[in-house]
Design brief:
CATH class of the largest domain: Alpha Beta
Number of helices: 20
Shape: globular
Oligomer: single chain
Helix content: 25-40%
Radius of gyration: 25 Å
Structural class: alpha/beta
CATH superfamily of the largest domain: Glycosidases
Largest sheet: 8 strands, parallel, barrel
């Protein structure tokens, strides 16, 4: 028996509590093995009350939905069609007694109680009923329902002999945080469009609702900008890439001697944004400035502080000194870029980076020093703040919100900025106390490019750090230092996948899963309902779903589990 099968079997035998059941449940322990497989919902619902019997999805099943929830219904039947082989019809009404999955849009007080993403789900032998105030809630209810079916429902081809039954249950559920996201860096290593869609699918399966798309870097520019074609003609391709660890002596650095190229056309972007929207995911684009800009400067040298210096797209990892200029022309250039970005992304949030801006060239540039004096600023930190404020004002005028990494706090925070706190949570605390919204993204709990084992020789080469699944699960985005009023500024959190050492989609998945499952529960499930041992009893069934989706993941039995 393989280690993974041993672990799954052991988890089922050890399961001694009812998954997700309200505290008052008196369900017999004798049914625990059945419950582990039947009710292994991730993330854990607010209320999950098992009932007798089961519902069978068959060729005679229909979906009933009014016009408000019709799109959700059609998305669901498309999702299950390949696995089941069923052409399930969507109807406005159905005869009493029909085998039906009914989507009901609630009104009145239920609208407030359920919120934008909450739902109630009842599965009985007679049928399935979903109640939600908004389409997103209905979508999440059906994602939960799919988890009650055999894992094969997530396949893209039928599995002969599968009986599509779901155990009877009553579920009430709603998320704790409004920002539940996952980030993907496609600049260090470009990822194909179809994989970006698959990544979005994984986010959606976990009821996450933000995809942070990191599109520009020192090592590559990945989005087409019509007004400035050299950004993709030149900046989307680097001549070679470093191999292994960074070496201080350039003569000893090893390279692969292979061009690394790729970018997304504007049509690609529209396709991906629409794909995400169908799954109630907002795509948040990131365009780095004023640092992490070497790729852009390589195509348009006037953007840099040394326009007479020729520089190519960066071939090693780390932070380039080729920071952007701070003159009016550079501001206008980047606002032109943002204009095209806003036309492609309906997201209310636009991320402008703002992190790790090496100011060495600013300090040594007479023009920059004169610019600081001209603007009446104190130093280079205030100049960066001034730069960010230009973008904040511009985005605000267009009805958008600026998001930046926590370095944008240095020199003064732009009036309408949302802070993404990655250097721990201190930046998030400072921003929340200043009445700014915050997304928590600390490396200690959300950087999925870190190792998953203390035995690094047993893992693929990674950037460093150690982040096991139990640490991810333990994350609470709301620091104890915040008052109740300040805590309301914490929108939520997200996973980060930086790809310096992650070269292809299968490696991305290995680093992502099952840590994403743990973070999804940490962000969705109410704090009082979080239970790591219970999560570990549910995860074997969830890994079967990942297998069905052809998702690579790190075997769970290798994970470090704290006592």
């Amino acid at each position: 028996m393989t280690p993974s099968r041993k672990f799954a079997r052991r988890s089922l035998l050890l399961f001694d509590i009812v998954l997700g059941v309200a505290a008052t449940s008196s369900m017999a322990t004798a049914q625990s093995m059945h419950d582990a497989a039947s009710y292994a919902v991730i993330p854990r619902p607010t209320v999950l009350s098992p009932a007798a019997g089961h519902f069978t999805l068959s060729r005679r099943t229909i979906v009933v939905a009014d016009s408000a929830l019709s799109a959700v219904a059609h998305r669901f039947v498309r999702d299950i069609a390949d696995a089941t082989g069923y052409d399930v019809p969507v109807m406005r009404t159905a005869a009493t007694g029909a085998s039906a999955i009914r989507l009901i849009r609630v009104a009145g007080r239920d609208t407030v109680a359920l919120g934008a993403e909450g739902y109630r789900l009842d599965v009985t032998p007679r049928g399935v009923t979903v109640r939600a105030a908004h389409p997103a809630g209905a979508y999440y209810a059906l994602e939960t329902f799919k988890q009650l079916l055999p894992a094969a429902v997530f396949r893209d081809a039928p599995l002969p002999g599968t009986v599509w039954t779901a155990a009877s249950v009553h579920i009430e559920d709603a998320p704790r945080f409004v920002w539940r996201g996952a980030h993907l860096d496609v600049s260090r290593h470009f990822m194909p469009k179809e994989f970006v869609k698959k990544y979005i699918d994984q986010i959606a399966r976990h009821k996450m609702n933000r995809f942070h798309w990191h599109l520009t870097e020192d090592q590559g520019w990945r989005i087409e900008i019509k007004k400035y074609p050299r950004l993709t003609d030149l900046s989307s391709c680097r001549d070679q890439t470093m191999v292994g660890r960074y070496v201080a002596d350039p003569a000893k650095q090893v390279f692969d001697s292979t061009k690394h190229c790729g970018y997304y056309t504007q049509d690609d972007v529209r396709e991906i944004v629409a794909y995400a929207a169908e799954r109630y995911i907002t795509v948040v684009p990131e365009i780095e400035m004023p640092g992490h800009a070497q790729a852009a400067v390589s195509a348009y040298p006037q953007l840099g502080v040394r326009p007479d210096t020729t520089v190519g797209v960066m071939q090693v990892w780390g932070v380039s000194k080729f920071i952007m200029n701070a003159d009016d022309a550079t501001i206008a250039f980047m606002q032109d870029v943002l204009t095209e970005v806003m036309a492609l992304f309906p997201s209310p949030y636009i991320h402008i980076g703002g992190d790790e801006a090496d100011k060495t060239f600013w300090k040594s540039s007479g023009l920059i020093q004169a610019r600081i004096k001209e603007l009446g600023l104190k130093d280079e930190h205030e100049l960066q703040s001034w730069f960010i404020r230009q973008m904040d004002t511009f985005l605000t005028a267009h009805g958008r919100r600026l998001v930046g990494w926590d370095e944008i706090l240095e020199g003064g925070l732009a009036e309408n900025a949302t802070v993404m706190s990655w250097r721990g949570v201190a930046g998030g605390i400072a921003a929340a106390k200043a009445n700014h919204d915050v997304v928590m993204a600390p490396g200690s709990h959300t950087y999925f490019d870190h190792y998953q084992s203390l035995n690094k020789n047993a893992e693929p080469l990674a950037i460093g750090g150690f982040l096991p699944i139990d640490t991810v699960y333990s994350f609470d985005p709301v620091p104890a230092e915040l008052t109740a009023a300040e805590a309301k500024h914490v929108l939520g959190a997200q996973a980060q996948v930086w790809t310096e050492y992650i070269q292809n989609p299968k490696q991305v998945e290995y680093m992502l899963q099952p840590r994403l499952s743990a973070l999804a529960e940490a962000l969705w499930t109410k704090k009082a309902r979080k239970d790591f041992p219970d999560f570990m009893r549910r995860i074997p069934a969830h890994l079967d779903r990942l297998r069905a989706m052809d998702v690579n993941f790190r075997p769970i039995e290798q994970a470090k589990i704290r006592p």
